[in-house]
Hints:
- The structure is a single chain.
- By secondary structure, the protein is mainly α.
- It has one domain: ABC transporter involved in vitamin B12 uptake, BtuC.
- It has helices spanning 2-9, 18-23, 28-63, 75-89, 95-119, 127-149, 153-160, 176-187, 189-195, 199-204, 209-230, 237-249, 253-277, 286-309.
- The chain is globular and about 65 Å long.
Amino acid sequence: MLLTAVISVFIGVSNVSPATLLSGSADSQTLHVLLVSRIPRTLAIVLAGGSMAVVGMIMQLLARNNFVEPSTAGTIEAATLGLLVVAILAPGMPVMGKMVVASLFALAGTALFLRILRLVPLRSVLVAPLIGIMLGGVIGAVTTFFAYRLDLLQSLNSWMTGSFAGVLRGRYELLWLSFVLMLVAYIAADRFTVAGMGQDFTTNLGMNYNRVWALGLIIVALVSSVVVVTVGMIPFLGLVVPNVVRTIFGDNMRRSTPWVVVFGAGFMLICDIIGRTLRYPYEIPVGVVVGVVGSVLFLYILLRKDAHVA
């Protein structure tokens, strides 16, 4: 992760290289590009990648299904619907207000998804992501319909496609909230691990299952909305990374959370570097790269799990 972070800082059209900085010949413009664009972008990638991976792990524990994450549970689509409502009713609302509204919609969408899972008999592990994708499709269709009718499709596309191209100093700091939420998730890691074993087991240990469930939903909703508001939708990241880490470190969230953060940030950095170099000097949005790579890994995990179960 550290290596890819350093590489990310020095990728771009402007001539910012380690040799220039070490030789002391860097002018004010070079330092300005480094401090205003390159370093903030790298920090935003690390924060978004690590936090989305952590919320994916929390959702998998709450749903007790390893194929669930914000982009397969309707959470991202619900947050996007909240942003559209803000764009229609209060277009001048500050970023913090947009985040709060998007969080409320994401919270409602995630709670609805988990509620449906409790009502539907899950005879296969594939039913949960299927329900989430269908729910997200319905919410996304409603969002697209109103965006089309009100000529807001361009704004909608900017939220649905994750990209760090517009990240500058002063335009990414909201992502530090996701870092605080990652710390909260790590502090409550043992509770989430126990909650992942079921409501009856959690209650028998003297814990309030509903409180743990509510805390998890709040973390998932806030992180998802912060990422969508700042850089857009990042699909499949929260699904692939926790499953990879789980095969190495098991289901203990306290032990695996630091590695989920590292793997998530590293995976996001690699995908961003691919998007920036594949058609250099043009840039492919990182959401597209993560979506392609993540969907392939998702299919591999599905096939491997089915083969193992069979």
